[in-house]
Design a protein that fits this description.
The strands form four sheets. A seven-stranded mixed barrel has the order 1-11-10-15-13-12-17. A three-stranded antiparallel beta sheet has the order 4-3-16, with no helix packed on it. Strands 6-7-8 form a three-stranded antiparallel beta sheet, with no helix packed on it. The longest helix has 10 residues. It has one domain: PK beta-barrel domain-like (M1 Pyruvate Kinase, Domain 3). It is of the alpha+beta class.
Length: 286
Amino acid sequence: MSNSPSTDTGSVLSLWRYPVKSMLGEELQATHVTDGGLLGDREYAVMDQATGKVGSAKYPRKWGALLGCHASFLEPPRLGAQLPAVRITLPDGTTVTSAQEHVHTLLSRVFERDVALTTTRPESPSVEVERLDTLDPAEAIGDVGKFMMPGKFSDYAAVHVLTTATLDCLRALYPPGCFDVRRFRPNIVVESPFGPQAFVENAWVGRTLAIGTEVRLRITDPMPRCVITTLAQGDLPRDLGILKTVTEHNQVSIPVLGGAARPGVGVCAFVLQGGTIRRGDPVRIA
């Protein structure tokens, strides 16, 4: 793959927004990108009322049910407008919206503790991480709350980008695994014209990604992977081999973690220039 300026890198295959942190999200045809990322992305979160901590599937024994919930906006978010309500489908199929008074009660039953759905990010957010095994980089990173974007519930970066080349590479390395894009929770999936290649996004760090005619993203770090990639979610089964494969084949330096080597898939990006992006838009590396 050429990294020369204005060289086509592929096109936008899919766009994903996750209205509630750690819940399943919604696939989009088009969306607006702001300084904080895709409009409406990770604006809501479930919080433990006793501890004040932000719910995250990084602690699966306590918060794993988040991945059994599906969140979507009742209407598309609009620039400058009040954030719309979200509809949440719970693991048992029950639906509730954030505008309904009993939403907190229903969610508390799901998580078996007193929780609340909120759009208010704590000034100093704290996210619990369960220490499961040495494969999980979260064991070394600890509380990711200190990395959260101001005003959002994103763990660190505004946008997460992943290519089909990397997914195809992982499938070849571990054929029994289901490397469905949903395991990695990206915002933008880039369809690569070059076929399976080993972790092509690693070479993008420090570069600018141009999407369509407007959006420009600055790639800052490989995306460190954690236990969430191995968990059952939707119709995807639990599979520890997913993270093990990444760990064995792509330990990369993560600048935001002081250069520490961690298993990585995809890249973190911040917004240099916002605008509208659509499926099919060309993607270029500058």
